[in-house]
Design the sequence.
């Protein structure tokens, strides 16, 4: 485990134990046994411990969508890219789910997270819009981005109490998204 990963793991452990807002940067630095300079070499702020991975996940989702086969149905591509992006984000240490739990339990982070989730939904909306030849702000792409994001978030929340391994949860994500994506594809097909 790298020093950055150690800082991340210790900080997330403290957030889960004490709460995000209640855990100070000084407590994180002390618990990690690093200097303030070293901490800021890894993370620009306390919230970046949570958000840097989310930003990387969203960038990867955008990349997967951009590289997808345009001959495939739109919602098949969206579903498979959403699952693949999360699969790439999952780590064996379980930090990804712990990070989500910290985010979901913190009012402060949920308020900051609105921008993050809009960016995630926009990745889907932009892809759908590009396939339809319309603006991502049009009704259909914007609705699809919001609907898929809501289903994705609901799936993540449903995993919180689970003791299943990440690989099993990921297999279930495709099945969880399928009914919604089928309905959305029918909507696209009728256009």
Sequence:
């Amino acid at each position: 485990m790298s020093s950055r990963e150690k800082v991340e793991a210790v900080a997330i452990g403290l957030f889960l134990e004490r709460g995000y807002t209640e855990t100070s940067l000084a407590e994180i630095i002390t618990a990690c046994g690093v200097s303030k300079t070293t901490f800021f070499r890894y993370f620009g702020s306390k919230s970046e411990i949570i958000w840097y991975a989310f930003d990387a996940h969203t960038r990867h989702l955008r990349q997967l969508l951009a590289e997808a086969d345009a001959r495939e149905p739109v919602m098949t591509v969206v579903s498979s890219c959403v699952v693949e992006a999360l699969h790439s984000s999952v780590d064996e240490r379980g930090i990804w789910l712990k990070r989500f739990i910290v985010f979901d339990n913190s009012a402060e982070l949920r308020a900051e997270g609105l921008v993050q989730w809009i960016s995630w939904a926009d990745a889907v909306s932009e892809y759908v819009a590009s396939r339809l030849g319309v603006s991502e702000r049009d009704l259909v792409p914007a609705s699809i981005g919001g609907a898929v994001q809501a289903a994705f978030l609901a799936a993540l929340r449903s995993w919180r109490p689970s003791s299943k391994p990440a690989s099993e949860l990921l297999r279930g994500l495709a099945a969880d998204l399928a009914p919604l994506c089928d309905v959305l594809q029918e909507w696209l097909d009728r256009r």
In short: The domain at 1-46 is CATH 1.10.10.60 (Arc Repressor Mutant, subunit A).
